[in-house]
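Why do we care about 3D structure at all? Because function follows from shape, and shape follows, mostly, from sequence. That is the central idea of this module. The next example makes it concrete: a single protein chain, its amino acid sequence, and then its structure expressed as tokens.
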Amino acid sequence: MASVARENIGLLNDKIIVKVTKDDYFPTFEKKLKEYSKTVNVPGFRKGMVPQGMIKKMYGPSIYTDEVLKTVEKQLYTYLDTEKPEIFAQPLAMDADIRKLDLNNPAEYEFGFEIGLKPSFEIPSIESAPLTFHKVKVTDEMVQDEVERMQQKGGTISEPETISDDETVLNILFTEVDEAGNVIEGGAVKENSLIFRYFTPALQEELKGKSKDAVVVTQLSKAIEGETLEMVLQDLGFAKDDKAAADKFFNLKIVKLGKVENRELNEAFFGEVFPGAGIATEDEFRQKLKEEIEQYWESQSRNQLHDQIYHLLLDDTKMEFPAEFLKRWLQTGSQERKTAEEAEAEFPTFSSQLKWTLISDKIIKDNKLEVSQEELKESMRVEVMRYFGTMNLGEDTSWLDSYIDRMLKDEKQVDASYRRLITDKLFGWAQSKANPQQKEVSADELTAMQHNHQH
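And the structure:
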């Protein structure tokens, strides 16, 4: 009669011992052997007429081993289904020499399996946590910058005869030369586009009033500065901080001049930016734009608060792991086998992800957070409509329902949508519990916070 025992071998690490006797596996082995003799093809014998002894000699060892292991596996998973221990991944088989399985001497066999147990833990209090909601105040200057950006985006491009103002765009052919202006064989050559105001004041004075095909010879460091110089250096194939390259001489030839004529602020333009909003005046347009900018920064502030909550939950939740078991599982239990060194190197990131999974699963379970079928469908509908954007889909959109029904049959698509929605619900629940202090910050300050923490 088969038996299963369990013993502790370390922190959150147990061993399950499965013992099987001859009575557990041998009858099934004999049955499989008879079935095999009826179907196997052996040259020189008619099907089903192969002597039993030959079948046993040829195929018996593999069938015997297979039936013993199947019996052990069945006992193991019956035990896990009955006892329901909270375990990580799948049990790891401990060292066992299956060569000792001898069909001519059926015996009692013992197999060991190692399991890693999930830790018990408590979620830290979100209500009393020192959280901050960083709020961006939208200024008239921010609105003006966005107005100008939209005017440029919707504007038309003209080709002036000469450089007329700071916003003129110059297509420049950079050719490496010596101090006398002679082209260096094998030197850097590249065309680039720069706005006139990006050049140094000295070069602006020299270029002012110039037209297409005009040429000046100068050192890069005397023509452009700062981030623009770094960008041009990299574009020419140098390191952005290469001071020697910055002092090289270049022939700057104007290949083309361009100028963006800003779109006029009128009712037609307002309707293009905000279709269907019925905006008739510039004041209404600026107010609507301000509301849009406020909504954007409100969402960014909310994301940053969620980042704080994420770190609170991850950093302040005390949790222990069966580390050695999990490292062994990384080596043998995952899809790709890894060396001990690879598993050791991956473990910090793996354990952090595992910790977040346990925390989020607990929050979802304890607070009964769910994603309904209708929410999944609506989410997919929004994604499809966003994909098509402003395209005119016509009045008949009945095809959309069947398209979404097909998406719901795609397990990867459903899983991605579910994860996104349940994560939104998790952080929505957490935010509802939080009592953050509000602090006014600039847009640049909030952006810097987001760049420092991305998950």
